[in-house]
Design goal:
With about 290 residues, the chain is α+β, with helices and mostly antiparallel strands. It has helices spanning about 30-35, 90-105, 115-120, 155-160, 200-205, 215-220, 275, and strands at about 10-15, 20-25, 60-65, 70, 80-85, 145, 175, 180-185, 210-215, 230-235, 245-250, 255-260. Keywords: 4Fe-4S, Iron, Iron-sulfur, Metal-binding.
Length: about 290
């Protein structure tokens, strides 16, 4: 018999969302309340295993009495507040953010980016062919994962996952200023000469594909990557006794990458190098 811990009950508060009364647990964010109410609010930098960074500004909403639009990912719901998620001001702001992002980086592997660009009628090409872009060549300096800064939106999720929120390796940070700011390891050198322990937790939280498995990168380059043909099977890692859950992504009877369920109480989406990348022995058919 499985016993589910109930935890400490939280008091419900009431506020207005798009003119309709809703309830949310005390301490919940506006984004949490919107999702619970079935309201789709786009977001890129928000992660369910990380503290919000308010970096991408795609999730902004309008709150009655607030001078500026507020990020739904970090603003807590308050009793009696009036929130609107689809006003002209909100839509215009999201449109501008999407235009600026899509005109400077490659969002082709960002889930739902194309859908949002269409929904908000964003036109990234309106800045012209000379708009500055991060057209950098992908950095392939190891056999496990690839860094493609041409897709990076500086959401800081990888920095947080590598830092004090999870791994505590502090191998990566932000260097440079303005448009030249980017994610990098020490002295912006090769990954193999850094403090990286190859846990891949930065890959797990990356929302754009700027960090990806080497296997996924190679298959995309060859045109064989097909998520619709992949199956996902969650199992338990066999390397040690911690009990980490692994989700194996399989295509054509080959494991192509490994993730971990974010709601797992042991891992919360995090793994070590063995759990995330040590799967080749399973399919070594030599």
């Amino acid at each position: 018999m499985t016993v589910t811990p109930l935890g400490i009950p939280r008091r419900l508060l009431e506020f207005t969302l798009n003119g309709e009364p809703v309830r949310a647990p005390e301490g919940a964010t506006i984004l949490d309340a919107c999702r619970a109410a079935g309201k789709d609010v786009p977001t890129l930098c928000e992660g369910d295993t990380l503290a919000p960074k308010n970096a991408c500004r795609v999730c902004v909403v309008e709150v009655e009495g607030a001078r500026t639009l507020v990020p739904a990912c970090s603003r807590e719901a308050e009793p009696g507040m009036e929130v609107r998620t689809g006003t002209e001001r909100v839509r215009h702001s999201r449109k501008m953010v999407l235009e600026l992002l899509a005109s400077s980086v490659d969002l082709s592997t960002t889930p739902r980016a194309a859908e949002w660009i269409k929904e908000y009628e964003a036109k990234p090409d309106r800045f012209g062919p000379n708009a500055a872009r991060l057209d950098e060549e992908p950095r392939v300096d190891n056999d496990l994962y690839v860094r493609d800064y041409g897709k990076c939106i500086l959401c800081y999720k990888c920095v947080d996952a590598c830092g004090d929120q999870w791994q505590n390796s502090f191998a990566i940070s932000v260097v440079g200023r303005g448009f030249d700011a980017r994610i990098a390891v020490e002295h912006d050198g090769p990954l193999t000469e850094s403090a990286c322990v190859y846990c891949g937790n930065c890959v797990e939280v990356c929302p754009t594909g700027a960090l990806s498995f080497k296997s996924e990168f190679d298959m995309r380059a060859a045109g064989t990557w097909d998520e619709s043909a992949q199956t996902e099977t969650t199992t338990v890692c066999a390397y040690c006794g911690v009990g980490c859950n692994l989700t194996l992504h399989v295509q054509d009877n080959e494991i192509v990458k490994v993730t971990s369920p974010h709601d797992n109480p042991v891992t919360h989406g995090n793994l070590c190098i063995k759990g995330r990348f040590g799967y080749q022995h399973v399919q070594n058919r030599a």
